[in-house]
Amino acid sequence: MTDAGTSGGHIDTGKPHSARMYDYYLGGKDNYPVDAEAAEQVISLFPAAREMARTNRLFMHRASRLLAGRGVRQFLDIGTGIPTEPNLHQIVQAIVPQARVVYADNDPIVLRHAQALLHSTPEGRTAYVHGDVRDPAKIIAAARETLDFTQPIALSLVALLHLVGDEDEPARIVRELLEPLPSGSYVTLSHATGDFDPETWERVVEVYRKGGTAAQVRSRAEFSAFFTGLELVEPGVVLAARWHPELGEQTGGEGGGEEMPLYVAIGRKP
């Protein structure tokens, strides 16, 4: 089937953007000096920032692999970030060639690279939506053009909710995204925490907030609350490195991440 995308806006190179900072942590080239400067400030406070970004990325790989293995055929990935192979659709379509994947992000530079996200298998389909998670209705409406909302959908909010402050009601956002999804759907979350070093993470959060991103780390209890009313997939809420490490690539390329301050979990809508 044909692939699809939507238009986006102007790239603001005058202030850092979380997607481009994440690209910098991963060693990418799609960032600007303002992003690199902010990212280096974070690294000076938390030297494991690059490894934590990689740990998060590898969790996404394992989570997507698990859900595709469970027969999920549809994925809605919000907060996609700048494409870094393998992307989610490449992982799930290798297992389920007919899988449909909708990506969404609010950074126009992601839109510029969205073509890399749209190389679907002939049996499946991928699409890109330029939208902000703070407007769930817009994303859901656009996703309906590609996904069948009568069949289970795997919602992915990986490394996203710690970029949404309490003032934007992240729990409400999660509820509104899950509400139109049918029973048997899933939500995959990962989230930075200050549980183990609150002072450092207060300073990291301040770097993001000074750049205009409403960052906010949360405790294990606060993270777990996002799964209220859902059935947690084993092993429940754990640190990323402890979540199904056996689902790593067979090449042995998915290691590391020991005790990174990153909580992860998958919940199933009953």
From TrEMBL:
Lineage: superkingdom: Bacteria
InterPro entries assigned to the protein according to its UniProt record, in alphabetical order: SAM-dependent_MTases_sf, SAM_dep_MeTrfase_SAV2177_type
Protein name: S-adenosyl methyltransferase
Organism: Streptomyces africanus
